[in-house]
Specification:
Number of helices: 3
Number of strands: 0
Strand content: under 5%
Order of helices and strands: HHH
Largest sheet: none
Helix content: over 70%
Length: 69
């Protein structure tokens, strides 16, 4: 048979990860989901820590540099 309405065929497989993301989008908590998943990943945690340390060092540099001049 032909699929005239161009809808994808139903798949009986369950995609649990996508279901969790879909629920997060529906509940408008995608940012919270992203932060939690990033913090759970060791490399993601390292990146977050390095980014925040870098930003803190930059802010400290700007404050000290402006105070001297």
């Amino acid at each position: 048979m032909s699929n005239s309405d161009r809808t994808p065929p139903e798949n009986k497989g369950d995609w649990e990860g996508f279901r969790e993301i879909d629920r997060a989008i529906a509940e408008d908590r995608l940012a919270s989901y992203t932060w939690k998943k990033t913090w759970a990943d060791p490399w993601g945690r390292l990146k977050l820590i390095l980014i925040f340390v870098g930003l803190s060092a930059f802010v400290a540099f700007v404050v000290v540099h402006d105070a001297i001049l």
